[in-house]
Amino acid sequence: MSRIASLQGAARRRLPFLAPAAAVVAAGLALCGQGLWIPAKAVLAQVLLERAFAQSVATGQPVKPWPWADTWPVARITFPRLHRSVIVLNGASGQALAFGPGHVAGTPDAGDRGTAVYAAHRDTHFALLGQVRPGDEVAVERIDGRRSRFTVAGAQVVRWNASGLDPHAPGRALALATCWPLDAKTHGPMRYLVWAKPVEAIRSGND
Fold first, then answer.
1. pLDDT tens, 123-136?
2. How far is Cα 95 from Cα 106, in angstroms, rounded to an integer?
3. What is residue 43's three-state secondary structure?
4. Are the CB atoms for 198 and 171 separated by under 8 Å?
5. Dihedral pair phi/psi, residue 51, rounded to 5°
6. Would you say the pTM of this structure is higher than 0.70?
7. Contact, 124 vs 49, CB < 8 A?
8. CA triplet 67, 143, 74: central angle to 5 degrees?
């Protein structure tokens, strides 16, 4: 009995030290779970967005990906060389960007006059921008059926408030934007812009 009492006393003495350690472990697991959940949510959202986009193209009307969504698909961006595509949402609010790239308000749709701007997070949907090279093709299909092809002209790093983006610039350009550095884990003032010039624009079903 004395040995049992001794072991119980030792366990009680260790409890004050074990509790903080357990809290740290729990917090670490929670952060890991959150880190895994963000990209998982982005992937799952794209599946639902693909369905909503297909319905939008078929009906010619915006279709919400889920009933409580405050945004909807407006386009699909395809990177043929990378065999990747992403669905773009209306608006570039923080909530929208959690699920996919956003079409920046105040800029034209891809293929229209001016510079269309699409933005996304560097650790999810636009992580691939680091693999995009000059000369790559970028294709954009809109929910109205219009398809536009672009060729990447180059990329640059700029401050968020000195991007040089002009939505009313001559021509029909495309800009893809994300945060810089691409491998950073904290927010900063720098942005990475990929510029593309048009190849052609065709309407679905027409030559």
1. 888 999 999 999 99
2. 18
3. helix
4. yes
5. -65, -45
6. yes
7. no
8. 60
On the question of pLDDT at 201 being above 60, the answer is no
Tokens of 69: 């969504």
Phi, psi of 37 (to 5 degrees): -70, -35
Cα torsion 53, 57, 58, 62 to 10°: value is 70
CB 148 within 8 A of CB 200: yes
CB-based contacts of 130, cutoff 8 Å, min separation 6 = 182
Residue range 31-37: mean pLDDT, rounded:
39
Place of tokens 């999810």: 124
Domain range list for the chain: 36-203
Tell me the two tokens of residue 28: 């670490």
The percent of residues in the chain predicted with pLDDT above 90, rounded, is 52
The confidence score (pLDDT) of residue 17 equals 40
36-203 fold: Sortase; Chain: A; (2.40.260)
**For residue 22, what pLDDT is reported?**
36
CB distance 139 to 83 below 8 Å: no
* Pairing mode, strands 172-179 and 137-142: unpaired
